[in-house]
């Protein structure tokens, strides 16, 4: 063992980990150290932390070699088990949704509210994060665990969602001065108001979508007492009133009866019958992380030339034309460049004889591609949002798919929703996007940047221990481009994809498998875990997949922040919060913006200690970038710190605290603490 460790070591200090997956560390580490010292007198042993090893390794001369890349390839040395990225895909999508809520809604709003004198909600945030991180042990999040573990994860997800929504709601109420008790006591002064928030740290406007509720009737709760329910008009055509007083026409996307409960701490809940109306409208220009309030106004007609329309089976705006093909796939034409893409998001389904760790095609597997027929229905005709629906079935009707394609007037991204009802087993459902770009790497999003990956071309015969997976993980997006021709696939968070030698992106929608581990797989001989039936890993029943496709250029991909901004516009749009019982709201004047080409926002959150706000971004390029944070009302101090908010370095404030400049090295993560 000593010989093997020394042979691989890059210096005189060698870390030996004590304890591993599925078994605990030695109960008496000092005794273990002494025993090893007796066996190997030529070496010294000490109990150490990992950071102490790194500090010792830094002193080695010459410097150890730099290890670069993802470190995801160990196929001839040990199992890599990259098939887990597609296992229990609905559970992974749910986790991504909650991470997004905490990172980009709950944390920023809590930080902004606290800075403006609102309540300190760090305890709730910490509880939410601790509960979510309990779901992030590798087997639980990877999905290679028993169904009982999956059930426990789902239960914790519900707790996290409730906490996140509570933080978002309370912080938003603080920022606009909304008090439900005060509103209940001044019912005659209530004016239903839409609070609009920009969750991106850059100015934005354009088309926004929001839900509003309009009162129809009281729901009387309790024993009959002669009370008469109040009556309302419900939905009547309306417009919104912008902060400057002008009317904002709306496009009604959906309307349905619903129930809504209004809570107040010192009053019984109000349960009401309402009309829930989904609307699209052109939002006023908004500052980074800024707020706006819009009231109700008499209806006004939208201009028919706002920018998007339905032409037969096509959605058309000034950027793109997206057409539903007879197979249910999309054809996409970039009207700016003339580039065309066909057969996008065409569904294909093949068998999966693997387990939760490893995909394995069955012997004589036949992949079936969707060929129609499809039933098409127009959902929205424009002029702000246009949408088409297509329905089809696969696997003899055991997999039903509802596909919705949406196009906004001011966006090149085609927003898509797939609602899948899976009643089949032992199969893998994917969506293929041919790009026509051979011989290039695809660029996938990661937590703090991107990674370029060529197609996996390994032959299984060369890897008897485990066949290399052709799929890979991505965060937020994956794209391929050459010159002006390129395509980006975007998702709310984590997903699995394959990049083929032919230039196709293939998105995993779900893997349906029924065993935790199998020992007879040609792609991975031997058990990777303890054999256990996992019927829930077959992903039975309905699931929802949100994504978007957009034409991009090579320059867009290389710029660093362009794809991130496109992703924000799709999955972090201007967000509306409807307050039906609002009374004299006073929205805080917020403005926080990140400047610098190639810089991407990672986090805006309350500091771990005290009242400062943490601003974190990363440089998505391989060059040094000059950046700045800009504030509407100025800050008192700014310090550059480590990710753990230690080792503070004071920064110079400019313009009465309205700008803080910094320099980010190639791919560097920059954390700044402001008060």
> What are the segments in which pLDDT stays under 50 over at least 5 consecutive residues?
none
**H/I helix tally:** 10
Q: Specify the structural class.
A: alpha+beta
CATH architecture of the domain at 180-303 and 575-579: Sandwich
Strand content: 35-45%
Largest sheet data: 13 strands, antiparallel
The CATH class of the domain at 180-303 and 575-579: Mainly Beta
Structure explained in plain terms:
The protein has 675 residues and is an alpha+beta fold. Among the domains are: 129 residues, Immunoglobulin-like (Sandwich), CATH 2.60.40; 83 residues, Sandwich (Immunoglobulin-like). Helix content is 18%, strand content 38%. It has ten helices and 37 strands. Strands 13, 14, 15, 16, 17, 18, 19, 20, 21, 22, 23, 24 and 27 form a 13-stranded antiparallel β-sheet that branches. The chain has a five-stranded antiparallel β-sheet with strand order 4-3-7-1-28, with no helix packed on it. Strands 8-9-10-11-12 form a five-stranded antiparallel β-sheet, with no helix packed on it. Strand 9 and strand 10 form a beta hairpin. Helix 4 runs antiparallel to helix 5, helix 4 packs parallel to helix 7 and helix 5 runs antiparallel to helix 7. The longest helix has 30 residues. It starts with a helix and ends with a strand. The mean pLDDT is 95.
